[in-house]
Each structure stands twice: as structure tokens, then as C-alpha cells.
Amino acid sequence: MIHLLKIDHFKKVFLFCALLISNFSVHAQNPDVMKAVALQKLSLFITWPEQTFSNNTANEFTIAVLNNEPFGKTIEKIYKNQHIKNKKVIVRQVKNSEELTDCHLLYISNSSEKELKKILSSLKNKPVLIVSNKNGFGLAGSHINLYDSNNKLRFEINQMALKEAGFTIEYQLLHVSKIINPITK
């Protein structure tokens, strides 16, 4: 058992180093592909609340993509035969917050701040990781906001929002991210 834990830790360290080396160069790759790949990489450093997967008999990890059909199709292609958290990835395209049931990760890019507040309210106390890609959404309450800096994909982490939703985040991801609403001890 200890040997397996060391291997798992080694895999995370290796992937973390790969994350640093690659820096998700947006210029060299299709930005949507890089963001789609980032979702899986980010999930390696985030732990969902304990009860999240206990009733998941289908052994699926569901990503909901709000109002962005082209990105949803990109994710579907990339994750067709891939796994997140050792679970088959299912991608659902959703048009409004009422359709946000039974997903583990929500990707938001084409929404207004008013819509974001409605979404955050409807998902309060639910174990849904909210990843956005719009300026200001990190401060507005999204758990992780993706942004471009010098042609590289970067991350804003809303540490307080993650904690309030029951997620834990590993220090390696915090170390390479811009922290918004940090937790003070």
C-alpha cells in the first residue's frame, strides 16, 4: 500500500513538473485544446468533497459546458477515451443554470456576471468545481479562472470559494497560480 502511495505521489510530481515546463503555451497550440487539457491537469491537484463520488454507480465524471458549444465539442473529442479521477468523462452541453444537475465540473466562458451569480447561488453547497474563462469571474466567485498571460494559459484560484465548497487544493497548484481571496490562518 505504501509503495502504491509513493507511485501516486511520483505521478503527481511528474505531472506538476510537466505542467511547469509546458506552461500551457497558448500561442503554440489551439487555445481551446489547451484549456480542455488543463481541466484534467487541474483535477489532479484538487480533491472533491468525500461524498461526491459515493453514489456514482456509473463511475462517470461529468463536465457541464455552459453556453459554449464549440468548446464542448473540443472537450468531447479530447476526452472520448480519457478519464478524470479514474472515471469515464461525460460531457454535457447546457444552456442555463437550471440544467446544472449532477455534474462534477462546470466550465463557464460565455456568461455575464449576473448569470454567474445565479449559477453560484444554484450550486451553493454542491460539490461542483466551477472553472471559468472570463476576466473578473475569479473575483466574482468562480473556483478557478483561466486566463492568458504572454501567450501562456494561467490560473486564478479563488481559495476561499474552493474551501467554502468543500474542495481541497494541493500546494503545487497554488504555487503556480494567482491566488484570489486567499485563506488566512
Write structural notes for this entry:
- Helix 2 crosses helix 3 (69-78).
- The strands form 2 sheets. The protein has an 8-stranded mixed β-sheet with strand order 3-4-2-5-6-7-8-10.
- It is α/β, with parallel strands linked by helices and 185 residues long.
- The model is unreliable at 1-6 and 17-28 (pLDDT under 50).
- The longest helix has 21 residues, at 2-22.
- The chain contains 7 helices and 10 strands.
- It has one domain: Response regulator (Rossmann fold, 3-Layer(aba) Sandwich).
- Helix content is 37%, strand content 24%.
Summarize the structure.
This protein is α/β, with parallel strands linked by helices. Helix content is 37%, strand content 24%. The protein has helices at residues 2-22, 31-43, 69-78, 113-122, 137-140, 159-164, 171-175; strands at 46-47, 60-66, 83-84, 87-94, 105-108, 129-132, 144-149, 152-158, 168-169, 178-180.
Percent range for helical residues? 25-40%
Q: What is the correct CATH architecture? A: 3-Layer(aba) Sandwich
Output the radius of gyration. 16 Å
Q: Hey, roughly how much beta strand do the residues contain?
A: 15-25%
Our measurement of the CA-to-CA distance between the termini, rounded to an integer number of angstroms, reads 33 Å
Shape estimate: globular
Helix/strand structural class: alpha/beta
Identify the CATH class. Alpha Beta
Provide the CATH topology.
Answer: Rossmann fold
Q: Low-confidence parts lasting 5 or more residues at pLDDT below 50?
A: 1-6, 17-28
Topology:
Layout: H1 2-22, H2 31-43, E1 46-47, E2 60-66, H3 69-78, E3 83-84, E4 87-94, E5 105-108, H4 113-122, E6 129-132, H5 137-140, E7 144-149, E8 152-158, H6 159-164, E9 168-169, H7 171-175, E10 178-180
Parallel strand pairs: 2-4, 2-5, 5-6, 6-7, 8-10
Antiparallel strand pairs: 1-9, 3-4, 7-8
Helix pairs in contact: 2-3
